TrEMBL record:
Family statement: Belongs to the binding-protein-dependent transport system permease family.
Name this polypeptide is given: Phosphonate transport system permease protein
Pfam families: BPD_transp_1
PROSITE patterns linked to this entry: ABC_TM1
ABC transmembrane type-1 domain location: 60-243, 319-501
PANTHER family on file: ABC TRANSPORT SYSTEM PERMEASE PROTEIN P69, PHOSPHONATES TRANSPORT SYSTEM PERMEASE PROTEIN
Length: 512
């Protein structure tokens, strides 16, 4: 019976891959014939224009400030959101459901779309980008926060409450100390992601280095683009290094001296102060209120004809195409990330080789998604096939990082025993490693697929197919009824994928 189920699942996956490949116009012949063109822009970036560095530093600093301020504001609001949406602090089930529904709707919208909406409400500039990042961080951290809180045991808190301590004080004394280290660790992960998000917000006029990057790509000044990416690589490398060090501190693996504590808090105060000073609030006028009214009106009264149309420009087909782009991109990225997870692991390969592989992975994560989109369009032309290849490359970085962590956490005693018996590397992978890392791999792939659904929705900026192109055009032409229909469709798609992923994780006993 189990074999029959596995065979049916395998057959279904094959049919889905073939159908998705036909939908996105997959062509192995085209990839082989024109694949080398992918590196044309990379070659044009070398050597980077070092004289251009002076121009890049100021918008790059603004990008860092946007990510810091957006993460800080979103994390603080997210903690408040987690406090009022968990079952212990909020006894009103209907209110919890309403608040969680609102948070979920915000979380399903890509950061770039949130930033674009903010530009209509607040005007162009870094404020719109910062608020967009803050909304994204708020939604993600609220969900992570209330899920962590609701997974805790409330017995001790309820005991203190029964003794007259009060619900809030009982929460602060028992539950908060248990969830706070994990919450702060998640904030550091979000900060790393927000640095990369902030680098592309300039494409929609939301400030930061993205404006400069968009201009230089449009003018085909690729040596200057190379300089921008090189400096961005340094920033991402520094951010991830500092974040990893702080995570070790939060886990208790690293004890800080008094001097180090003072240095950390001084840095926090300095960066927080300078980041908040960056924000320049616009003068209040009626345009922002008019835009807000139009957006709300479009969400309340979407274009139902487009929402239920079965034509190629209808929401159902666009969602199906977006799903196919994300599915194939995740699948291809998973295969390549699995290879990197072994070659970039210090416990399996010598330090120089693994270090080089990790630096390559970091560079892959640094390059903005739109740059990859433009590079693949030179190979395939505009369309969903370019979107698949773009998401495949973008998936490598995050998946490989999660895979490497899974291997690092593995019990290597059995692996060493098999090595002593002379078992081949492939044999050790099959019989020792896969049984331990499989659940973590599946969890990472499902998480990345969820992200790719959102990323596929914004690839329309470079003409890489899916729902992104009509969504961006509708918003930029202020056609809010069409935008409302597309956004509702996107939210339903993301929700459906999350439900299926969650059920799959529960069935297999996999923790996210």
């Amino acid at each position: 019976m189990i074999c029959k189920h596995k065979a049916a699942a395998a057959a279904f996956c094959i049919v889905l891959i073939v159908a998705a490949g036909q939908t996105v116009d997959f062509s192995a012949f085209l990839l082989i014939q024109r694949g080398s063109r992918f590196f044309d822009i990379f070659r044009a970036m070398l050597p980077p224009d070092t004289a251009y560095a002076a121009v890049v530093l100021q918008p790059l600093w603004a990008t860092v400030q946007m990510s810091l301020a957006g993460t800080a504001i979103g994390a603080i609001c997210g903690f408040i959101g987690a406090f009022v949406t968990n079952a212990y602090n909020n006894q009103h089930r209907w209110l919890r459901i309403l608040l969680k529904g609102i948070i979920h709707c915000i979380r399903t919208i890509p950061v770039l779309i949130l930033a674009l909406i903010c530009t209509f409400l607040l005007g162009l500039g870094t404020l719109a980008g910062t608020i967009g990042l803050a909304l994204y961080t708020f939604a993600v951290m609220t969900r992570m926060g209330y899920e962590d809180i609701e997974s805790m045991s409330f017995i001790t808190a309820q005991t203190l409450e029964a003794a007259g301590c009060g619900r809030t004080r009982a929460f602060i004394r028992t539950i908060l100390p248990a969830v706070l280290p994990g919450y702060m660790t998640n904030v550091l992960y979000i900060l790393e992601a927000n640095v990369r998000h902030a680098a592309i917000l300039g494409y929609v006029g939301a400030g930061g280095i993205g404006i400069l990057l968009n201009e230089q790509i449009s003018w085909r000044q690729y040596s200057q683009v190379g300089m921008i990416l090189l400096l961005l690589y340094v920033v991402v490398l520094s951010t991830e290094g500092i974040s990893e060090w702080l995570r070790r501190v939060l886990r208790g693996a690293r004890k800080l001296t008094l001097t180090e504590r003072l240095a950390v808090w001084s840095s926090v105060v300095f960066f927080a102060g300078t980041s908040l000073l960056l924000l320049s609030f616009p003068h209040t006028d009626t345009s922002g209120f008019s835009a807000a009214h139009a957006i709300i009106e479009g969400m309340i009264h979407p274009d139902f004809g487009m929402l239920f149309s079965l034509e190629y420009d209808g929401v159902p087909y666009l969602l199906y195409e977006t799903f196919c782009i994300a599915f194939l991109g995740t699948l291809a990225g998973m295969c390549m990330a699995a290879v990197f997870s072994f070659t970039a692991n210090f416990r399996l390969f010598p330090c120089p080789a693994a270090l080089f592989a990790r630096l390559v992975l970091l560079f892959i994560r640094t390059v903005p998604v739109f740059v990859y989109g433009l590079m693949w369009i030179r190979v395939t032309g505009p369309g969903p096939f370019a979107g698949v290849l773009t998401l495949a490359v973008c998936s490598i970085g995050l998946l490989a990082k999660r895979f490497i962590i899974a291997i690092d956490d593995m019990d290597f005693r059995t692996y060493r025993a098999y090595t002593a018996m002379g078992v081949s590397f492939l044999g050790k992978v099959k019989y020792v490693m896969l049984p331990q890392i499989y659940p973590r791999y599946v969890s990472a792939v499902l998480y990345r697929f969820d992200i790719n659904i959102r990323d596929a929705a914004v690839l329309g900026l470079v003409g890489a197919g899916g729902i992104g192109t009509p969504l961006m055009l509708a918003m930029m032409h202020y056609n809010w009824s069409e935008a409302g229909a597309l956004l509702w469709g996107l939210m339903l798609l993301v929700t459906g994928v999350e439900i299926v992923s969650e059920q799959s994780r529960k069935k297999r006993g996999i923790n996210t």
